Amino acid sequence: MAYQDLRQFIRSLEKEGELKRIRAQVDPILEIAEVAQRVARDPGRAPQSVGPALLFEEPKGSRIPLLINAFGSVRRMALAFDVHDLTEIAERIKGFMKMETPQGLFDKIKLLPKLAELGSFFPKSVKSGACKEVIQQGSDVNLFDFPILKCWPQDGGRFITFPLVFTRNPETGKRNVGMYRMQVYDERTTGMHWQTQKHGAEHFRRARAANPEGRIPVAVAIGADPATALSGMLPIPPDLDEMMFAGFLRREPVEMVPCETNDLEVPANAEIVLEGYVNLNELRTEGPFGDHTGFYSLEGEYPVFHVECITRRKDPIYLTTVVGPPPQEDFYMGYAVERIFLPVMKMQYPEIVDVAMPAEGIFHNLMIVAIRKSYPGHARKIMNAIWSLGQAMFTKVIVVVDHDVDIHNYSELVWKALCALDPERDIQFNLGPVDTLDHAARLQDFGSKMGIDATRKWPSEGFTRPWPDEIRMDEATKARIQSIWKSLQL
Ligand SMILES: Cc1cc2nc3c(=O)[nH]c(=O)nc-3n(C[C@H](O)[C@H](O)[C@H](O)COP(=O)(O)O)c2cc1C
Ligand SMILES: [Mn+2]
To answer: With a threshold of 0.85, does the pTM exceed it?
Structure first.
Protein backbone atom coordinates (compact mmCIF):
# COMPACT_ATOMS: atom_id res chain seq x y z
CA MET A 1 0.00 0.00 0.00
CA ALA A 2 1.19 3.52 -0.76
CA TYR A 3 2.43 5.88 1.93
CA GLN A 4 -0.64 7.61 3.31
CA ASP A 5 1.16 10.77 4.41
CA LEU A 6 4.48 12.34 5.31
CA ARG A 7 4.54 10.93 8.83
CA GLN A 8 4.19 7.38 7.58
CA PHE A 9 7.23 8.02 5.37
CA ILE A 10 9.08 9.39 8.41
CA ARG A 11 8.32 6.18 10.31
CA SER A 12 9.63 4.15 7.42
CA LEU A 13 12.82 6.26 7.24
CA GLU A 14 13.30 5.74 10.95
CA LYS A 15 12.84 1.99 10.67
CA GLU A 16 15.44 1.89 7.91
CA GLY A 17 17.96 3.83 9.99
CA GLU A 18 17.65 6.76 7.58
CA LEU A 19 16.43 9.43 10.03
CA LYS A 20 17.87 11.25 13.03
CA ARG A 21 15.73 13.16 15.53
CA ILE A 22 17.18 16.34 16.98
CA ARG A 23 15.79 17.62 20.28
CA ALA A 24 18.19 20.53 20.69
CA GLN A 25 16.78 23.94 19.80
CA VAL A 26 18.40 24.90 16.52
CA ASP A 27 17.52 28.19 14.81
CA PRO A 28 15.75 28.06 11.40
CA ILE A 29 17.66 31.25 10.72
CA LEU A 30 20.89 29.91 9.17
CA GLU A 31 21.64 27.28 11.85
CA ILE A 32 19.45 24.46 10.52
CA ALA A 33 20.90 24.97 7.04
CA GLU A 34 24.42 24.69 8.49
CA VAL A 35 23.55 21.46 10.31
CA ALA A 36 21.98 20.06 7.14
CA GLN A 37 25.10 21.03 5.19
CA ARG A 38 27.41 19.25 7.58
CA VAL A 39 25.34 16.10 7.54
CA ALA A 40 24.69 15.98 3.82
CA ARG A 41 28.07 17.15 2.57
CA ASP A 42 30.68 16.09 5.10
CA PRO A 43 33.78 16.20 2.89
CA GLY A 44 35.26 13.26 4.78
CA ARG A 45 32.31 11.06 3.88
CA ALA A 46 32.26 8.80 0.87
CA PRO A 47 29.78 10.16 -1.72
CA GLN A 48 27.56 7.07 -1.47
CA SER A 49 27.14 7.39 2.29
CA VAL A 50 25.51 10.78 2.58
CA GLY A 51 23.96 11.59 5.94
CA PRO A 52 20.45 10.87 7.20
CA ALA A 53 17.19 12.77 7.03
CA LEU A 54 16.86 15.16 9.99
CA LEU A 55 13.76 15.78 12.06
CA PHE A 56 14.20 18.88 14.20
CA GLU A 57 11.58 18.33 16.89
CA GLU A 58 11.81 21.76 18.49
CA PRO A 59 13.25 24.28 16.08
CA LYS A 60 13.95 27.57 17.81
CA GLY A 61 11.03 29.99 17.80
CA SER A 62 8.37 27.54 16.58
CA ARG A 63 6.25 24.77 18.03
CA ILE A 64 6.25 22.93 14.72
CA PRO A 65 8.83 20.22 13.93
CA LEU A 66 10.86 20.49 10.73
CA LEU A 67 11.93 17.73 8.33
CA ILE A 68 14.93 18.26 6.05
CA ASN A 69 17.15 16.07 3.85
CA ALA A 70 14.31 13.53 3.64
CA PHE A 71 15.20 12.74 0.02
CA GLY A 72 18.96 13.32 0.24
CA SER A 73 20.26 9.98 -1.05
CA VAL A 74 19.58 7.51 -3.86
CA ARG A 75 18.34 5.01 -1.26
CA ARG A 76 15.85 7.47 0.23
CA MET A 77 14.59 8.41 -3.23
CA ALA A 78 13.93 4.70 -3.86
CA LEU A 79 12.22 4.44 -0.46
CA ALA A 80 10.11 7.48 -1.32
CA PHE A 81 8.79 5.77 -4.43
CA ASP A 82 8.63 2.42 -2.62
CA VAL A 83 10.89 0.62 -5.10
CA HIS A 84 14.19 -1.24 -4.79
CA ASP A 85 15.60 0.54 -7.77
CA LEU A 86 14.45 3.66 -9.62
CA THR A 87 14.54 1.74 -12.91
CA GLU A 88 11.38 -0.10 -11.75
CA ILE A 89 9.46 3.14 -12.22
CA ALA A 90 11.06 3.61 -15.61
CA GLU A 91 9.90 0.12 -16.63
CA ARG A 92 6.33 0.90 -15.56
CA ILE A 93 6.32 4.11 -17.58
CA LYS A 94 7.68 2.23 -20.56
CA GLY A 95 4.84 -0.29 -20.23
CA PHE A 96 2.26 2.47 -20.51
CA MET A 97 3.99 4.26 -23.36
CA LYS A 98 4.22 1.08 -25.44
CA MET A 99 0.45 0.85 -25.56
CA GLU A 100 -0.07 4.03 -27.58
CA THR A 101 -0.92 2.38 -30.95
CA PRO A 102 -2.82 -0.87 -30.55
CA GLN A 103 -2.61 -2.73 -33.86
CA GLY A 104 -5.47 -5.20 -34.02
CA LEU A 105 -8.42 -6.23 -31.92
CA PHE A 106 -6.27 -8.61 -29.91
CA ASP A 107 -3.86 -5.81 -28.93
CA LYS A 108 -6.78 -3.63 -27.94
CA ILE A 109 -8.16 -6.28 -25.65
CA LYS A 110 -4.75 -6.80 -24.10
CA LEU A 111 -4.65 -3.07 -23.46
CA LEU A 112 -7.83 -2.88 -21.44
CA PRO A 113 -6.41 -3.88 -18.06
CA LYS A 114 -3.56 -1.40 -18.51
CA LEU A 115 -5.96 1.40 -19.34
CA ALA A 116 -8.11 0.50 -16.38
CA GLU A 117 -4.99 0.62 -14.24
CA LEU A 118 -4.14 4.05 -15.61
CA GLY A 119 -7.68 5.23 -14.90
CA SER A 120 -7.33 4.05 -11.33
CA PHE A 121 -4.58 6.60 -10.72
CA PHE A 122 -6.76 9.64 -11.33
CA PRO A 123 -6.99 11.88 -8.28
CA LYS A 124 -10.07 11.27 -6.19
CA SER A 125 -12.16 14.08 -4.72
CA VAL A 126 -13.01 13.55 -1.06
CA LYS A 127 -14.96 15.77 1.34
CA SER A 128 -12.41 16.24 4.08
CA GLY A 129 -9.01 15.14 5.31
CA ALA A 130 -6.27 15.58 7.89
CA CYS A 131 -5.22 18.90 6.36
CA LYS A 132 -8.48 20.39 7.70
CA GLU A 133 -7.95 19.61 11.39
CA VAL A 134 -7.24 23.29 12.10
CA ILE A 135 -8.56 26.16 9.99
CA GLN A 136 -7.14 29.65 10.49
CA GLN A 137 -8.41 32.77 8.77
CA GLY A 138 -8.03 36.53 8.99
CA SER A 139 -5.75 37.70 11.78
CA ASP A 140 -5.06 34.07 12.81
CA VAL A 141 -3.02 33.62 9.65
CA ASN A 142 0.64 33.91 10.57
CA LEU A 143 3.38 32.34 8.46
CA PHE A 144 5.87 32.97 11.27
CA ASP A 145 4.19 30.15 13.23
CA PHE A 146 6.21 27.85 10.97
CA PRO A 147 9.97 27.27 11.26
CA ILE A 148 10.63 28.70 7.78
CA LEU A 149 14.33 28.73 6.92
CA LYS A 150 16.64 31.52 6.13
CA CYS A 151 19.27 29.37 4.41
CA TRP A 152 22.23 31.62 3.61
CA PRO A 153 23.59 34.90 5.02
CA GLN A 154 22.76 37.10 2.01
CA ASP A 155 19.27 35.64 1.48
CA GLY A 156 16.59 38.33 1.15
CA GLY A 157 14.64 36.72 3.98
CA ARG A 158 13.05 33.43 4.95
CA PHE A 159 11.95 31.13 2.14
CA ILE A 160 9.46 28.28 1.89
CA THR A 161 11.58 25.88 -0.17
CA PHE A 162 9.44 22.74 -0.57
CA PRO A 163 5.94 23.89 -1.55
CA LEU A 164 3.44 22.45 -4.00
CA VAL A 165 1.95 25.45 -5.78
CA PHE A 166 -1.52 24.74 -7.23
CA THR A 167 -2.97 26.86 -10.03
CA ARG A 168 -5.50 26.34 -12.79
CA ASN A 169 -5.02 27.09 -16.47
CA PRO A 170 -7.59 29.87 -16.96
CA GLU A 171 -8.30 28.68 -20.53
CA THR A 172 -8.47 24.90 -20.16
CA GLY A 173 -9.27 24.67 -16.46
CA LYS A 174 -6.47 22.09 -16.10
CA ARG A 175 -4.55 21.93 -12.86
CA ASN A 176 -0.82 22.55 -12.47
CA VAL A 177 1.42 21.83 -9.52
CA GLY A 178 4.91 23.31 -9.38
CA MET A 179 7.61 23.54 -6.75
CA TYR A 180 8.43 27.25 -6.70
CA ARG A 181 10.19 28.85 -3.73
CA MET A 182 8.30 31.49 -1.75
CA GLN A 183 9.99 34.36 0.07
CA VAL A 184 8.10 35.33 3.22
CA TYR A 185 7.49 39.11 3.23
CA ASP A 186 5.24 39.23 6.31
CA GLU A 187 2.66 37.14 8.24
CA ARG A 188 0.36 36.87 5.22
CA THR A 189 2.40 37.64 2.11
CA THR A 190 5.05 35.79 0.12
CA GLY A 191 6.79 35.97 -3.22
CA MET A 192 5.87 33.53 -5.99
CA HIS A 193 9.03 32.60 -7.83
CA TRP A 194 7.64 30.75 -10.85
CA GLN A 195 10.25 31.26 -13.53
CA THR A 196 9.06 32.54 -16.87
CA GLN A 197 9.05 29.18 -18.72
CA LYS A 198 7.19 27.32 -15.95
CA HIS A 199 3.52 26.38 -16.06
CA GLY A 200 2.47 28.55 -13.11
CA ALA A 201 3.93 31.59 -14.89
CA GLU A 202 2.00 30.67 -18.05
CA HIS A 203 -1.27 30.50 -16.10
CA PHE A 204 -0.49 33.92 -14.65
CA ARG A 205 0.19 35.40 -18.12
CA ARG A 206 -2.95 33.95 -19.69
CA ALA A 207 -5.13 35.21 -16.88
CA ARG A 208 -3.50 38.65 -17.05
CA ALA A 209 -4.07 38.85 -20.81
CA ALA A 210 -7.78 38.28 -20.22
CA ASN A 211 -8.13 40.61 -17.23
CA PRO A 212 -5.05 42.66 -16.24
CA GLU A 213 -6.67 43.97 -13.05
CA GLY A 214 -7.86 40.56 -11.84
CA ARG A 215 -6.42 37.91 -9.60
CA ILE A 216 -5.97 34.14 -9.75
CA PRO A 217 -6.60 31.69 -6.92
CA VAL A 218 -3.50 29.88 -5.69
CA ALA A 219 -3.14 27.15 -3.08
CA VAL A 220 0.09 25.82 -1.61
CA ALA A 221 0.48 22.45 0.09
CA ILE A 222 3.53 21.75 2.26
CA GLY A 223 4.33 18.16 3.24
CA ALA A 224 2.42 15.15 1.86
CA ASP A 225 3.17 11.51 1.10
CA PRO A 226 6.55 11.42 -0.68
CA ALA A 227 5.40 10.83 -4.27
CA THR A 228 2.90 13.67 -4.02
CA ALA A 229 5.38 15.99 -2.29
CA LEU A 230 7.94 15.35 -5.04
CA SER A 231 5.55 15.62 -7.97
CA GLY A 232 5.83 19.43 -8.04
CA MET A 233 9.36 19.31 -9.44
CA LEU A 234 8.69 16.77 -12.20
CA PRO A 235 9.31 18.12 -15.72
CA ILE A 236 6.06 16.84 -17.24
CA PRO A 237 4.16 18.49 -20.14
CA PRO A 238 1.75 21.39 -19.59
CA ASP A 239 -1.82 20.35 -18.77
CA LEU A 240 -0.68 16.91 -17.62
CA ASP A 241 -1.88 16.79 -14.04
CA GLU A 242 0.96 16.30 -11.57
CA MET A 243 -1.57 14.77 -9.16
CA MET A 244 -2.38 12.10 -11.72
CA PHE A 245 1.33 11.43 -12.12
CA ALA A 246 1.74 11.25 -8.35
CA GLY A 247 -1.10 8.69 -8.27
CA PHE A 248 0.72 6.67 -10.92
CA LEU A 249 3.99 6.83 -8.95
CA ARG A 250 2.40 5.74 -5.67
CA ARG A 251 0.04 3.26 -7.40
CA GLU A 252 -2.92 4.75 -5.58
CA PRO A 253 -4.95 7.88 -6.38
CA VAL A 254 -4.13 11.09 -4.55
CA GLU A 255 -7.13 12.15 -2.46
CA MET A 256 -7.98 15.79 -3.02
CA VAL A 257 -10.10 18.09 -0.82
CA PRO A 258 -11.66 21.40 -1.83
CA CYS A 259 -10.08 24.58 -0.45
CA GLU A 260 -12.09 26.64 2.06
CA THR A 261 -11.79 29.96 0.24
CA ASN A 262 -11.41 29.18 -3.46
CA ASP A 263 -12.27 26.48 -6.01
CA LEU A 264 -8.89 24.73 -6.06
CA GLU A 265 -8.27 21.31 -4.57
CA VAL A 266 -5.28 20.20 -2.47
CA PRO A 267 -4.03 16.81 -1.22
CA ALA A 268 -6.15 15.75 1.76
CA ASN A 269 -3.12 14.30 3.53
CA ALA A 270 -1.08 17.55 3.41
CA GLU A 271 0.55 18.76 6.61
CA ILE A 272 -0.09 22.44 5.86
CA VAL A 273 -2.13 24.26 3.21
CA LEU A 274 -1.96 27.97 2.39
CA GLU A 275 -4.93 29.34 0.44
CA GLY A 276 -4.94 32.69 -1.25
CA TYR A 277 -4.50 34.59 -4.48
CA VAL A 278 -2.01 36.33 -6.74
CA ASN A 279 -2.90 39.77 -8.12
CA LEU A 280 -2.24 40.01 -11.85
CA ASN A 281 -1.03 43.61 -11.64
CA GLU A 282 1.32 43.25 -8.68
CA LEU A 283 5.05 42.48 -8.70
CA ARG A 284 7.55 42.77 -5.88
CA THR A 285 11.29 42.39 -5.50
CA GLU A 286 12.19 38.79 -4.68
CA GLY A 287 15.62 37.48 -3.61
CA PRO A 288 18.51 37.29 -3.39
CA PHE A 289 18.52 33.59 -2.55
CA GLY A 290 21.46 31.21 -2.15
CA ASP A 291 20.60 28.84 -4.97
CA HIS A 292 21.47 25.39 -6.26
CA THR A 293 24.06 26.94 -8.55
CA GLY A 294 26.15 27.49 -5.44
CA PHE A 295 25.76 31.25 -5.98
CA TYR A 296 23.08 33.71 -4.97
CA SER A 297 20.35 34.16 -7.52
CA LEU A 298 19.86 37.88 -7.99
CA GLU A 299 16.90 39.98 -6.99
CA GLY A 300 14.07 40.01 -9.52
CA GLU A 301 10.47 41.16 -9.87
CA TYR A 302 7.96 38.37 -9.19
CA PRO A 303 4.26 38.04 -8.39
CA VAL A 304 3.04 38.19 -4.80
CA PHE A 305 1.01 35.52 -3.00
CA HIS A 306 -1.56 36.75 -0.47
CA VAL A 307 -2.52 34.12 2.11
CA GLU A 308 -6.14 34.33 3.24
CA CYS A 309 -6.51 31.02 5.02
CA ILE A 310 -4.31 28.31 6.49
CA THR A 311 -5.62 24.79 6.96
CA ARG A 312 -3.40 22.24 8.67
CA ARG A 313 -3.08 19.24 10.90
CA LYS A 314 -3.24 19.70 14.67
CA ASP A 315 0.45 18.78 14.89
CA PRO A 316 1.86 19.58 11.44
CA ILE A 317 5.38 18.75 10.31
CA TYR A 318 7.08 21.40 8.19
CA LEU A 319 8.87 19.85 5.20
CA THR A 320 11.77 21.81 3.77
CA THR A 321 15.08 21.56 1.93
CA VAL A 322 18.16 23.67 1.46
CA VAL A 323 19.88 24.30 -1.85
CA GLY A 324 23.46 25.50 -2.25
CA PRO A 325 26.80 24.32 -3.64
CA PRO A 326 26.30 20.91 -5.30
CA PRO A 327 25.66 18.19 -4.38
CA GLN A 328 22.67 18.86 -2.12
CA GLU A 329 19.39 17.09 -1.44
CA ASP A 330 17.99 18.34 -4.75
CA PHE A 331 20.73 16.51 -6.66
CA TYR A 332 19.13 13.21 -5.61
CA MET A 333 15.71 14.46 -6.70
CA GLY A 334 17.21 15.42 -10.07
CA TYR A 335 18.97 12.07 -10.33
CA ALA A 336 15.65 10.29 -9.80
CA VAL A 337 14.09 12.43 -12.55
CA GLU A 338 16.98 11.51 -14.86
CA ARG A 339 16.52 7.77 -14.21
CA ILE A 340 12.71 7.85 -14.35
CA PHE A 341 12.49 9.77 -17.61
CA LEU A 342 15.40 8.18 -19.46
CA PRO A 343 13.12 5.50 -21.00
CA VAL A 344 10.75 8.24 -22.17
CA MET A 345 13.66 9.96 -23.91
CA LYS A 346 14.76 6.64 -25.35
CA MET A 347 11.33 5.89 -26.77
CA GLN A 348 11.33 9.19 -28.59
CA TYR A 349 15.01 8.88 -29.56
CA PRO A 350 15.93 5.17 -29.63
CA GLU A 351 19.52 6.02 -30.54
CA ILE A 352 20.06 7.32 -26.98
CA VAL A 353 21.86 4.67 -24.94
CA ASP A 354 22.39 6.58 -21.71
CA VAL A 355 22.32 10.06 -20.20
CA ALA A 356 24.34 11.51 -17.32
CA MET A 357 24.02 14.81 -15.50
CA PRO A 358 26.89 15.24 -13.03
CA ALA A 359 25.99 17.04 -9.79
CA GLU A 360 28.39 19.87 -10.57
CA GLY A 361 26.41 20.59 -13.73
CA ILE A 362 23.40 21.50 -11.50
CA PHE A 363 20.90 19.92 -13.94
CA HIS A 364 20.98 22.50 -16.70
CA ASN A 365 24.67 23.19 -17.25
CA LEU A 366 25.85 19.81 -18.49
CA MET A 367 24.24 16.77 -20.07
CA ILE A 368 26.29 13.88 -21.38
CA VAL A 369 24.60 11.64 -23.91
CA ALA A 370 25.80 8.33 -25.31
CA ILE A 371 24.27 7.42 -28.68
CA ARG A 372 24.39 4.59 -31.14
CA LYS A 373 25.47 6.65 -34.12
CA SER A 374 23.84 5.61 -37.39
CA TYR A 375 24.24 8.42 -39.89
CA PRO A 376 26.32 11.52 -40.57
CA GLY A 377 25.47 14.41 -38.26
CA HIS A 378 23.65 12.13 -35.83
CA ALA A 379 25.27 13.71 -32.75
CA ARG A 380 24.06 17.16 -33.85
CA LYS A 381 20.55 15.85 -34.38
CA ILE A 382 20.47 14.65 -30.77
CA MET A 383 21.71 18.02 -29.50
CA ASN A 384 18.87 19.76 -31.31
CA ALA A 385 16.40 17.20 -29.97
CA ILE A 386 17.49 17.85 -26.40
CA TRP A 387 17.31 21.60 -26.85
CA SER A 388 13.66 21.16 -27.82
CA LEU A 389 12.70 18.63 -25.15
CA GLY A 390 10.75 20.15 -22.23
CA GLN A 391 12.98 21.58 -19.53
CA ALA A 392 16.02 19.98 -21.19
CA MET A 393 15.81 23.07 -23.43
CA PHE A 394 17.88 24.84 -20.75
CA THR A 395 20.90 22.56 -21.18
CA LYS A 396 23.94 24.82 -21.53
CA VAL A 397 26.49 22.21 -22.62
CA ILE A 398 25.68 18.90 -24.30
CA VAL A 399 28.42 16.34 -24.87
CA VAL A 400 27.55 13.51 -27.24
CA VAL A 401 29.72 10.40 -27.25
CA ASP A 402 29.54 6.96 -28.85
CA HIS A 403 27.60 4.14 -27.18
CA ASP A 404 30.72 2.34 -25.94
CA VAL A 405 31.77 5.13 -23.55
CA ASP A 406 30.76 4.61 -19.92
CA ILE A 407 29.39 8.10 -19.29
CA HIS A 408 28.95 7.56 -15.55
CA ASN A 409 32.70 7.03 -15.29
CA TYR A 410 33.79 10.66 -15.61
CA SER A 411 37.46 9.72 -15.91
CA GLU A 412 36.78 7.54 -18.96
CA LEU A 413 34.40 10.15 -20.33
CA VAL A 414 36.84 13.07 -20.17
CA TRP A 415 39.63 10.98 -21.64
CA LYS A 416 37.66 9.61 -24.58
CA ALA A 417 35.63 12.72 -25.32
CA LEU A 418 38.72 14.92 -25.50
CA CYS A 419 40.55 12.41 -27.69
CA ALA A 420 37.65 12.40 -30.17
CA LEU A 421 37.65 16.16 -30.54
CA ASP A 422 38.79 18.62 -33.17
CA PRO A 423 37.33 21.60 -31.32
CA GLU A 424 36.76 24.00 -34.17
CA ARG A 425 35.02 21.31 -36.18
CA ASP A 426 33.14 19.54 -33.41
CA ILE A 427 31.80 22.35 -31.23
CA GLN A 428 28.60 24.08 -32.19
CA PHE A 429 26.91 27.09 -30.63
CA ASN A 430 23.23 27.79 -30.47
CA LEU A 431 20.92 30.43 -28.99
CA GLY A 432 17.75 29.92 -27.02
CA PRO A 433 16.02 30.02 -23.65
CA VAL A 434 18.31 29.48 -20.67
CA ASP A 435 17.66 28.78 -16.99
CA THR A 436 16.55 31.89 -15.10
CA LEU A 437 19.25 31.09 -12.53
CA ASP A 438 22.05 31.30 -15.12
CA HIS A 439 23.85 34.43 -13.95
CA ALA A 440 26.41 34.31 -16.78
CA ALA A 441 23.90 34.55 -19.63
CA ARG A 442 23.89 37.85 -21.56
CA LEU A 443 20.26 38.38 -20.62
CA GLN A 444 18.07 36.78 -18.00
CA ASP A 445 16.34 33.74 -19.58
CA PHE A 446 18.09 34.08 -22.96
CA GLY A 447 21.57 33.05 -24.04
CA SER A 448 23.80 30.59 -25.84
CA LYS A 449 24.40 26.88 -25.59
CA MET A 450 27.22 24.65 -26.73
CA GLY A 451 27.09 21.18 -28.20
CA ILE A 452 30.21 19.02 -28.37
CA ASP A 453 30.21 16.19 -30.87
CA ALA A 454 32.68 13.81 -29.27
CA THR A 455 31.69 10.78 -31.33
CA ARG A 456 34.10 9.03 -33.70
CA LYS A 457 34.14 10.96 -36.96
CA TRP A 458 33.16 9.20 -40.15
CA PRO A 459 34.33 9.52 -43.77
CA SER A 460 30.73 10.47 -44.63
CA GLU A 461 31.19 13.42 -42.28
CA GLY A 462 34.24 14.53 -44.22
CA PHE A 463 36.79 12.83 -41.98
CA THR A 464 38.98 10.76 -44.27
CA ARG A 465 41.91 9.92 -41.99
CA PRO A 466 41.89 6.47 -40.37
CA TRP A 467 40.43 6.32 -36.82
CA PRO A 468 42.67 4.26 -34.53
CA ASP A 469 41.58 1.35 -32.34
CA GLU A 470 41.53 1.76 -28.59
CA ILE A 471 44.47 -0.01 -26.92
CA ARG A 472 43.62 -3.39 -25.41
CA MET A 473 45.94 -6.29 -24.51
CA ASP A 474 45.18 -9.52 -26.37
CA GLU A 475 43.45 -12.31 -24.45
CA ALA A 476 46.24 -14.90 -24.89
CA THR A 477 48.84 -12.65 -23.28
CA LYS A 478 46.46 -11.72 -20.49
CA ALA A 479 45.76 -15.39 -19.79
CA ARG A 480 49.45 -16.30 -19.77
CA ILE A 481 50.30 -13.52 -17.29
CA GLN A 482 47.34 -14.49 -15.17
CA SER A 483 48.70 -18.04 -14.96
CA ILE A 484 52.10 -16.87 -13.66
CA TRP A 485 50.77 -13.89 -11.69
CA LYS A 486 51.17 -15.42 -8.23
CA SER A 487 54.77 -16.46 -8.92
CA LEU A 488 55.68 -12.87 -9.80
CA GLN A 489 54.76 -11.91 -6.22
CA LEU A 490 53.70 -8.38 -7.15
C1 LIG B 1 14.16 22.40 -4.24
C2 LIG B 1 13.66 22.95 -5.54
C3 LIG B 1 13.35 24.30 -5.66
C4 LIG B 1 12.87 24.84 -6.84
N5 LIG B 1 12.58 26.17 -6.91
C6 LIG B 1 12.06 26.67 -8.05
C7 LIG B 1 11.69 28.04 -8.12
O8 LIG B 1 11.82 28.80 -7.16
N9 LIG B 1 11.16 28.51 -9.29
C10 LIG B 1 10.98 27.69 -10.37
O11 LIG B 1 10.47 28.16 -11.39
N12 LIG B 1 11.34 26.40 -10.35
C13 LIG B 1 11.88 25.86 -9.20
N14 LIG B 1 12.23 24.55 -9.16
C15 LIG B 1 12.08 23.71 -10.37
C16 LIG B 1 10.63 23.37 -10.65
O17 LIG B 1 10.04 22.78 -9.51
C18 LIG B 1 10.51 22.43 -11.83
O19 LIG B 1 11.02 23.09 -12.97
C20 LIG B 1 9.08 21.97 -12.09
O21 LIG B 1 9.06 21.05 -13.16
C22 LIG B 1 8.16 23.13 -12.39
O23 LIG B 1 6.84 22.66 -12.55
P24 LIG B 1 6.00 23.08 -13.85
O25 LIG B 1 6.71 22.43 -15.01
O26 LIG B 1 4.64 22.53 -13.62
O27 LIG B 1 6.03 24.57 -13.94
C28 LIG B 1 12.70 24.00 -7.96
C29 LIG B 1 13.01 22.65 -7.85
C30 LIG B 1 13.48 22.12 -6.67
C31 LIG B 1 13.79 20.64 -6.60
MN1 LIG C 1 3.39 21.26 -14.80
So the answer is: yes
